[in-house]
Write a structure and sequence with these properties.
alpha/beta; 13% strand; binds 1,4-dihydronicotinamide adenine dinucleotide; 662 residues
């Protein structure tokens, strides 16, 4: 039998039959480090199923031969090139039919899942009779299509709710959130969980076990009943309406509707396939995905340096303390230095809260705490691969500190500054190896902001830049290469945007109305709430530095003179209670307010690009999306402006709530 399988000349699979007649089908996509279900790969899977239809094995185990994981999903580039309704429908139909076929083969099938199992990969696994997950921290199962503005149309919307119940399934499908191996087992998504060293033996036993396919319990069956589904969908829709009242993101509504009305089969509503797959939102979210991949690629480790094992941070304030905690969370040894012992103690307290929040296992949280070492005298400096300076924003103080640090540095270490406003050119005067100073500019709050600007000049040592990028990648953040200019990219763009918002306040528009205009546009937070969050004093300093001679708005001066600095003092433009601003109802949004607020942001992004702060327009858009949360469905400020200019009308409207569920 092995020889006949060989005759199929598979490029993306390797198949062997063992003595127990179990077929081991290993996916190993050619010319790629990860497995993706492209048209080519799916066609080969079809050939394999044809072959086994004639000569059924005793069982089929589908596994991955890539160390990266099981399957990373469909081939997204195929969605980017959709040119017709027919093409869109054929992509959905291809996966739906293939997995239907897999689900109905006569022999038992099992997906052996280690590492990522995403999108189409999970839909393939759902079509198997059994799923066995490997207990490995990298194992992660998700249907993240919604994040690309599309839906899991290859059977996910049909099979997942039946397997784990609609409540857990809708949560996974509407948020794209992953579950790890243990949770997958707990919620019934996996039939078993196994240690890595036992996985083959366990897979062989399970596939031949004769255990019946997992069936939903009575409550889950009831909730999946055609007459109950619309009621559940209506409740879920209410939540969606609150989160996205403008309907910028049509895919979650489509998922609810396809599940409720068509039992998860998108092919029964072909017009919706087309409207979702070819929507501007989907196109833009796919663009954002590619931008994110591009930033991630900057963070890939280079060959000329070892992974960063030890980080030394000087300055245990708002930023330094949280940077140190984040690095310890990500597994590095961190020594944390400050001239003030209490600042270190406070940083350790915040760090412990972070560890317990992020690491559910108490022992892991304790281990992370142990990795964060208080170091008043800087004993860690000679051991560190990366030394990050995050002391107060004062040129002389920073230069003085560098004089003390530099002689102790390892020859291959980099010295990095978290400065937001001082230039590398000035900071490095006095260093004997000035080319080893880079900027690694984190955003506040460190744990929540995915972007880190890596600041360089023409004189910076390329090896130091590579190490800085790799370090940022190693801690799971997105590095953006920027040139050393005032405000770099993100702060330079935010300053005039915040200034314009305060000018509107001076002219009588209420803060709630300004914020409502921008959240309706799709920003995660309005500019007035943002100013309160970063602090009015910091907004003033940034404004002074970055908006030239522009006079300070009256509303800002008045509050500063009263000592109202925003969230940190409990009062700024809003009164803050329990970490939240107290807001009144906004007025109706005046015509052109949105355009007026967005314009300085877009214009400055263009200006920073023209000044060479970032290398190209895509990087500018990526920086603003991941550094400010700029409405992802627009594809970024420059892309948004280009589409506005070329179409002269707003992004395609989403179906209304009524359309989605009626
Ligand atoms: P901070 O005032 O909260 O903390 C500064 C810390 O440095 C204090 O704990 C202080 O005791 C310590 N320090 C000062 N001189 C020292 C020295 N010579 N040796 C050892 N410790 C010393 O300041 P923050 O906000 O954390 O800012 C730090 C740096 O990060 C600044 O360069 C700032 O521009 C930058 N930054 C700040 C952001 C923010 O939102 N706060 C955002 C991004 C960058």
């Amino acid at each position: 039998m092995a020889s006949t399988i060989d005759a199929l000349n598979l490029r993306h699979f390797h198949c062997s039959i063992d003595t127990g007649r179990i077929a081991w089908l290993g996916i190993d996509c050619a010319d790629s480090s990860v497995n993706r279900l492209s048209a080519d790969v799916m066609a080969e899977l079809g050939k394999v199923l044809d072959h086994f239809a004639l000569k059924p094995p005793a069982g089929l185990v589908i596994h991955s031969r890539k160390s990266a994981g099981f399957i990373a999903g469909a081939d997204i580039s195929e969605f980017s090139s959709l040119d017709s309704a027919e093409h869109a429908r054929s992509i959905v139909s291809r996966g739906w039919s293939m997995f239907d076929r897999l689900a109905s083969v006569s022999y038992p099938t099992l997906a052996l899942i280690r590492g990522h199992c995403l999108g189409g990969g999970l839909e393939l696994a759902l079509a198997c009779r059994y799923r066995l997950v490997v207990d490995d921290p990298a194992t992660s199962l998700a249907l993240p299509e919604v994040m690309l503005g599309i839906f899991p149309g290859w059977g996910g919307m049909h099979r997942l709710p039946r397997m784990i119940g609609p409540v857990a399934a809708l949560d996974m499908m509407l948020t794209g959130r992953p579950v790890d191996a243990r949770k997958a087992h707990r919620i019934g998504l996996a039939d078993g969980i196994v240690a890595p060293r036992l996985m083959e033996r366990a897979a062989a036993q399970m596939v031949l076990s004769g255990r019946p396919r997992r069936r939903p319990g009575p409550v889950q069956s009831l909730m999946n009943h055609p007459s109950v589904r619309p009621l559940l969908a209506k409740q879920a829709l209410k939540k969606l309406q609150q989160k996205d009242p403008q309907g910028h993101y049509p895919a979650p509504r489509a998922i609810l509707d396809i599940w409720a009305r068509y039992n998860g089969n998108a092919l029964k509503t072909p017009e919706r396939i087309n409207s979702i797959l070819q929507s501007d939102t989907a196109r833009n979210l796919v663009r954002v995905f590619h931008l994110q991949e591009r930033l991630k690629a900057f963070g890939k480790a280079g060959k000329d340096h070892a992974p960063v094992a030890h980080v030394h941070v000087v300055g245990a304030g708002v930023m330094g303390g949280d940077i140190a905690a984040w690095c310890a969370l990500k597994g590095m040894t961190v020594t944390l230095q400050d001239q003030d012992r209490e600042r270190i103690a406070a940083a350790q307290g915040r760090a412990y809260a972070l560890f317990t929040r992020k690491l559910k296992d108490k022992r892991q949280a304790r281990a992370a705490s142990d990795r964060l070492i208080p170091d008043m005298r800087g004993h860690g400096i000679p051991h560190a691969n990366v030394v990050i300076e995050a002391i107060s924003e004062n040129l002389q103080a920073k230069q003085g500190l560098y004089q003390a640090i530099e002689p102790q540095l390892r020859p291959d270490a980099i010295l990095a500054t978290n400065t937001s406003s001082l230039s590398l050119e000035e900071l490095r005067t006095g260093l004997s190896r000035p080319e080893r100073l880079v900027g690694i500019h984190f955003f506040n709050p460190v744990a929540r902001m995915p972007l880190v600007e890596v600041v360089e000049t023409a004189q910076t040592d390329p090896a130091a830049i590579r190490l800085a990028h790799a370090f940022v990648g190693q801690i799971g953040k997105l590095p953006l290469p920027v040139q050393s200019t005032p405000g770099f990219l993100v702060n330079a763009v935010l300053a005039p945007y915040m200034l314009e918002a305060m000018r509107c306040l001076d002219q009588g528009t209420r803060p709630e109305t300004i914020d409502a205009a921008m959240t309706a546009f799709g920003m995660p937070m309005g500019p007035i709430e943002l100013i309160d969050t970063v602090g009015l004093d910091i907004a003033r300093d940034a404004g002074r530095q970055l908006t030239g001679n522009a006079s300070m708005p009256n509303c800002l001066e008045t509050r500063l003179s009263r000592g109202d600095l925003g969230r940190k003092t409990g009062r700024g433009f809003y009164v803050w209670k329990n970490g939240k601003p107290v807001k009144q109802q906004p007025d109706p949004i005046p015509p052109r307010l949105t355009e007026r607020l967005i314009e300085p942001l877009v214009v400055t992004t263009r200006r920073q690009l023209d000044a060479g702060v970032v290398a190209d327009a895509d990087l500018a858009d990526a920086g603003i999306i991941f550094g400010t949360g700029f409405a992802p469905f627009t594809g970024g400020p420059l892309h948004y402006m280009d589409t506005q200019n070329s179409t002269r009308h707003a992004p395609a409207a989403a179906p209304t709530a009524e359309e989605a569920t009626s």
